[in-house]
Amino acid sequence: xxxxxxxxxxxxxxxxxxxxxxxxxxxxxxxxxxxxxxxxxxxxxxxxxxxxxxxxxxxxxxxxxxxxxxxxxxxxxxxxxxxxxxxxxxxxxxxxxxxxxxxxxxxxxxxxxxxxxxxxxxxxxxxxxxxxxxxxxxxxxxxxxxxxxxxxxxxxxxxxxxxxxxxxxxxxxxxxxxxxxxxxxxxxxxxxxxxxxxxxxxxxxxxxxxxxxxxxxxxxxxxxxxxxxxxxxxxxxxxxxxxxxxxxxxxxxxxxxxxxxxxxxxxxxxxxxxxxxxxxxxxxxxxxxxxxxxxx
Length: 296
Description:
Blueprint: H1 7-10, H2 14-19, H3 30-49, H4 56-76, H5 79-93, H6 113-128, H7 131-134, H8 136-155, H9 159-182, E1 186-190, H10 191-194, H11 207-219, E2 225-230, H12 237-257, E3 265-269, E4 290-295
Helix pairs in contact: 3-4, 3-5, 4-5, 4-8, 6-8, 6-9, 8-9, 11-12
């Protein structure tokens, strides 16, 4: 992100710029800069006119990528970088998944490769653990800031800009890693603890535990879950199917009363078709009698 001279002020230094053989990667001389300006302006115009859409993660990535694009275009007049970030923003607005730049896509200083590789691996792990759905703003920011960090580290001559992108990335990454750690993929509740035998009425003693689940879901409004009832193989399969459905519905009804929107929950009973522990028919097995609240 090298600030170019304005045309009027560039004449005296033109020979130096033309003859410079020590430019940061991605930079060009003043003639190249002037050739890039027009196409970059058109790209920026399209990007500004693009709607980020309703998906919160992609909308966040669009917003933070456009911040980089505007900075590069207006403040630094580094048009290649502006186009890079603007194109990333438009791709996400069009439905593409935001992607942290591959390490090999940039000519990074050798002593920075391990650090950026580790950071990218952490980011990918947090996203794969559901970070984009749990905290879409932080996830979109983390990917955009990582791509900015990669760009700045390749140029490797503006410490303040490198630090800005890196620090913003680390802050956003910490948020999605923290959320991922606090929100398990599946919550399994033993039916024998939750309900009396052969019943689908939640025991009052278990209200506080379900309240904590509801509180977690209310705080993380982008999480959608499946509430699934399961039984063991004791008794007729058709009866077990109905019992599992009633129990799943009882849990979903409780969560809804505590503020979890019903349209965020899929409610299903699986009866004895998905055993946690394989057993023969007509076998009592407590581990198979359960209700699972699973992210989807």
